[in-house]
Amino acid sequence: MTSNNQPYGGTIGNTVADSTPWWPDPTTPPEGSPNVVMVVLDDVGFADLGCYGSEIDTPTMDALAANGLRYNNFHTTAICSPTRACLLTGRNHHSVGMAVVSNWDTGFPGCTGRISNRAATMAEMLRPAGYSTFAVGKWHLAPIEDTTPAGPFDQWPLQRGFDRYYGFLDGATNQWDPDLVADNHHIDAPDKPGYHVTEDLVDQAIGMVTSQTSAWPERPFFLYLCFGTGHYPIHVPKPHIDRYNGRYDTGWGTIREERFARQKDIGIIPADTELPPFNPGVPEWEELSADEQRLATRMQQAYAGMLTHTDEHLGQLVSTLQEIGQADNTVFVLLSDNGATQEGGPSGHENAMRFINGLEPRSLAQQLADIEEIGGPNSWMAYPMGWAMAGNTPLKWYKQNTHAGGVRDPLIISWPAGISDTGKVRTQYHHVSDIAPTLLEAIGLEPPAEMAGVEQMPIEGTSMVYSFSDAEAPTAKADQYYEMLGHRAMWVDGWKAVTRHIQGESFDDDRWELYHLDQDFSEARDLAEAEPERLASLIDRWWEAARDYQVLPLDDRILERFHVPKPRPITSRSRFVYYPGAYIPSDGCPDLKNVSYEIAVELERADGDDGTLLACGDVASGFALFIQDGHLVWDYNMAWEHYVAASAEPLSAGAHIVTAAFERTGSYAGTGRLLVDGVEVGSVAMPQTHNTHIHAVGISVGFTKAPSPSPRYTGQFPFIGTLSRVVIDVADDRELPDQLLIID
To answer: How far apart are CA 252 and CA 151, in angstroms?
Structure first.
């Protein structure tokens, strides 16, 4: 057999003269197969793109829509990892094991935090057919504890079918100084003035595509490009924020009404659509003080600027494809992974790590003092949910919810060589699991029955190719279920039953609503009381789907899912020994939340040998243990509340064991102590410590990987003495957390 498993077709004699050479047939895709570029935006609402009614400048995306199709009845799963799992596999998210985010594995088949090997990704399906496959940007489809330098790597992009990868593996990252991975290894972000990850991602994508096209122009490519825009942290160059000065001074209510009118004018929503009342918890703009309005306005300017900034750089990719002659036969698929997010709360957070850890926003005076920092390297901003409501116009609720505000999202498909009815709106009902079968049909490929010896589960999505040429064709999809964090919905033949679950309450007490979406685009008219039999039938259908697609058991736990006692070989021990230069991503680190622990550093130094001994997190949240001007310092950054212990005297030259010890004295509270060779040299009370997430940036040993958690130094600040090792011992006094909040 040859290396590609084709039987050898030549003959082999004693010498070359009496032998016949043979070469296996090269793997080639169907003739004329298009390139595929899949662009995924993060937490961008239905109404946030210009071509969906927004005032935000998105000319590149608008041009793709003008040269293709906009879908106004397209749906996702309401949260990022599950949407991406559906998008890449053509199956429902519970079916492949991604009930919620890849951080969670609850021990049930529908929630494993990884995509089943029985569900091949688009890359795994296209590469054997002769495609080059590139992934760039956010991944968030591997268990985060598996993203350390030790792996396991089986759910990293390269092991799920991609030839090349450049991006970040977790759900969010600092856009100014990201936690980057190239192929199968962690790297430092490029050190250049004004660096921003969006620009870098597009440059990397362009490099991959142009290099491949230069070497083998006949070979098609699949590019999966996922931006951090507009997930928190909202990071964007200041000129892009300032360009929106004055644009949002009228408030979210007015912006929502203007978008609603514009949506009707451009035909992205039906003319008879109703605008529902404000979502509960969103104040009228006039209820805010002038200072509150000024802060909220600046936050929305940053969000709008980030989207425009991304659009501009996406434009460079589109221009490159045109310049190298690849644009016409490229299928461009652009979508958001869910609706705009409520995670900024009523007033927003200029540091989202405060929200994640259950802290109130800083005082209005403090936030206004730092208003010019919004969007910059010293912020980690999440905007107020009033802007999210406007972002989802005319839909109710938000990301996480199975109402339309969470699941009905923008979708643009552009393919100059394959779509002639351009600039139009398509109204057929579809789901993110329908994208993969659409692309397979457009290319002319059948999904494999087996992949690497593993029998594949059936494709559960429905191809949308029929809609490319026929605006009037009836919806081909029969039904679609939804479940996210206990919220549920069922769509069948234009009707939708939906419930917004109240966490901690019985699922039996959920109140189901009923909407006839074919006549009620915005879910404004609840028909549950008028049509009880239809509602009951849809609820029964939901339970059938839940059993068919391994949705059960229903689970509304949130914070507790981070603490499910699953076997974790990397983190389940009580002692961790790290060596200089090591970097361990967040969920691969020891869990130092609500537990006593000691961090002991074995070192030798001469006078003047300063630097980082160990750091975790970045400017928004985390901690750093370092030597500065000879003094030992432990700065615990509780989302901008700094608890600092420092030695009164400089550390003498020579060999030492220096220790940062935390003694838990209450729920998420305790005392931090500094010791040198067993003798206490400083202490600090820590009345509030991290309860959900220290940071997406993990532990770095002997240097600071990200923007410093401590304002006392900048840069990597490497230790210039000799650091032998760091030993972290975790006690057994951990208190399991109470339920707090939803993240991601």
So the answer is: 45
C-beta neighbour count of 245 within 10 angstroms: 11
Asked if 649 and 733 count as a contact pair (C-beta separation under 8 A), the reply is no
Q: Which two tokens stand for residue 441?
A: 């049909």
Angle separating helix axes 80-89 and 435-443, nearest 10 degrees: 20
Taking the whole predicted model, whether its pTM rises above 0.85 is answered as yes
Phi, psi values for residue 732, rounded to 5°: -110, 30
Q: How far lies 266's CA from each of 40, 74, 261, in Å?
A: 24, 18, 9
Q: Using 50, 70 and 90 to split pLDDT, how confident is the model at 741?
A: very low
CA angle 492, 465, 162 (to 5 degrees): 105
CB 283 within 8 A of CB 402: no
Q: Cβ(576)–Cβ(642) under 8 Å?
A: no
Nearest to 204 by CA among 135, 140, 124, 139: 135
Q: CA-to-CA distance for 664 and 660, rounded, in angstroms?
A: 13
Residue spans of alpha helices (H) in 527-668: 532-548
Nearest-angstrom CA–CA distance, 206 and 210: 6
Angle subtended by helix axes 197-215 and 290-323, to nearest 10: 10
Distance CA 50, CA 682 (A): 56
pLDDT band at 306; cut points 50, 70, 90: very high
**Measured CA angle at 625 (ends 728, 614), to 5 deg:** 55
Please say if the pLDDT value at position 597 is more than 50. yes
User: Of 291, 238, 262, which Cα lies nearest the Cα of 51?
Assistant: 262
CA separation for the pair 697, 621 (Å, rounded): 9
Q: What is the per-residue DSSP string for 87-118? A: HHHSS-HHHHTBSS-TT---SBTTB-SS--TT
CA 123 – CA 57 distance, rounded (Å): 32
Output the six-digit token pair for 664: 């838990």
Extract the tokens encoding 510. Answer: 């959920």
Q: What pLDDT score does 276 carry? A: 98
Distances (CA, A) of 296 to 291, 346, 385: 9, 10, 10
**Confidence at 4, pLDDT banded by 50, 70, 90:** low
CA dihedral 558→564→567→569, nearest 10 degrees, is: 60
Per-residue pLDDT reduced to its tens digit, 402-457: 999 999 999 999 999 999 999 999 999 999 999 999 999 999 999 999 999 999 99
Amino acid at 570: I
- Tell me the angle at which helices 59-66 and 290-323 cross, rounded to the nearest 10 degrees: 50
Say how many C-beta atoms besides its own lie within 10 A of residue 558's C-beta: 19
Element (DSSP H or E) covering residue 386: helix 385-391
Pairing of strands 35-41, 221-226: parallel
Helix (H) or strand (E) holding 59, with range, is helix 59-66
Of 626, 629, 630, 621, the C-alpha closest to 645 is 626
> Residue 378, SS3?
coil
**pLDDT (tens digit, 9 = 90+) per residue, 138-192?**
999 999 999 999 999 999 999 999 999 999 999 999 999 999 999 999 999 999 9
